[in-house]
Amino acid sequence: MILITGGTGTTGADIIRQLAAAGTRDVRALVRDPGKAEFIRDAGFEVVQGDFERPETLAAALERVERALLLSAPDLRTVEHQARFIEAAKRAGTRHVVKFSAIGADASARGGFAKWHGEVEEQLRASGLAYTMLQPNSFMQNLLGSARQIAGQGLIYQPVGDAKASFVDTRDVAAVAARVLTEDGHEGKSYVITGPEALSYHDVAAKLSEATGKQVTYVPISPEDFRVGALAQGLPEWLVDALGLLNETLASGEWAAVTDVVREVCGKEPRTFGQFARDYATAFKSEG
Fold first, then answer.
1. Could you say which of 119, 136, 153 is where a domain stops?
2. Which residue range is the domain that position 242 belongs to?
3. Which residues of the chain are under the pLDDT cut of 70?
4. What was the pLDDT predicted at 287?
5. What is the distance between the alpha carbons of residues 150 and 146, in angstroms, rounded to a whole number?
6. CA atoms within 13 A on the CB side of 54
7. E strand map for 140-232
8. In this structure, are strands 2-5 and 67-70 parallel, antiparallel, or unpaired?
């Protein structure tokens, strides 16, 4: 039995679809809201209700589970939540935990997602369970959160200057996760998952322009302007702080390296940003 947590989120849903397409059997999904899990049932998979805030729900979800995907939504209590899951997996006799982590995960990082994921990785390594760490770069799909703005104004605002990153399509991250969850030989490994090329947001804007047939321009902004705008949109301060640290890291150029993980694990080429832009072009086009 394979347990998927976070299965109704963007990447989690992609993982569910990859497992279904591969004909995988004996899959269970732990979801907070069963009303959002109809597509999981349609795939022939079991759905159980629960979440990381209710540790009493984890034992039932992990019953008879051999491999589990540890994926939770961004939260200030990520370390606490995921540590609970690791302990529950140990008690349940789960053999292998696949942690959905992040590029640059490091317990000694200044703070934010890199530090939180790094601390959980250390706990998982010390747990005695077999593990695999998935460390994807920034998702191409993150731009969909700005799709309306891009469609209406033709502008992308980011506080990272001219820095480049090897953005990755969540569908390719999901393909790696699905392989790791269904194959032997990935235990004890950490996979930094990237796209096939390092791009600046100037490059991203040019590729969106080509895919949509309308001009898209990247406008660099200051970290201060990003923070003010994010807070004005109602994002909690802890999340704005964490996003600010991510932006600093991207701006430093640390995320520009390209890996062969998608090719090596899945036997296929990772999607380019141009492919992503064409696939989602409608989202970036103005309704008018």
1. 136
2. 144-164+196-256+269-284
3. 287-288
4. 56
5. 6
6. 11
7. 155-158, 164-165, 189-193, 199-200, 217-220
8. parallel
